[in-house]
Write a structure and sequence with these properties.
The protein has four helices and two strands; from the N terminus they run ααββαα. By secondary structure, it is mostly helical.
């Protein structure tokens, strides 16, 4: 096994509250996928996806509260932009490792992660 699977993932705290998703069915699939990872003792991988969901929510709250405009788009400032980018990159790495590593069970297909990233996170702006 790779050393990465044993490294702890520190959770990101939810600061402003939860932001509803654009696609409810996809969000339900994403949440059930997180529960599936937790039940299969893949806590670190589940925490990466939880961090992505929370970072997206925090970033959207900052954008909603910021009135700064640049080229017609809301501009977010602060640490939430970098935490959202880091969480998104970590989720992309996790999806690639699910595709490449034959040790993961077949039920951990990365399709749910890539769908969530393409629909929910690109709608955010990054």
């Amino acid at each position: 096994m790779n050393k990465r699977y044993f490294e702890p993932v520190h959770p990101i705290e939810l600061k402003f509250g939860d932001v509803p998703p654009k696609n409810n069915i996809l969000a339900q699939r994403f949440n059930s996928y997180i529960r599936l990872l937790k039940s299969n003792k893949l806590q670190n991988e589940a925490q990466v996806l939880i961090n992505l969901r929370i970072a997206r929510s925090n970033y959207l709250k900052v954008v909603a509260h910021n009135s700064n405009r640049k080229n017609g788009k809301p501009k977010a400032k602060g640490p939430y932009t970098t935490s959202f980018k880091k969480a998104k990159n970590a989720a992309l790495k996790l999806a690639k490792s699910f595709e490449e590593d034959p040790n993961y069970p077949l039920l951990c297909s990365p399709r749910v992660i890539t769908d969530y990233l393409s629909i929910e996170c690109t709608a955010v702006g990054y």
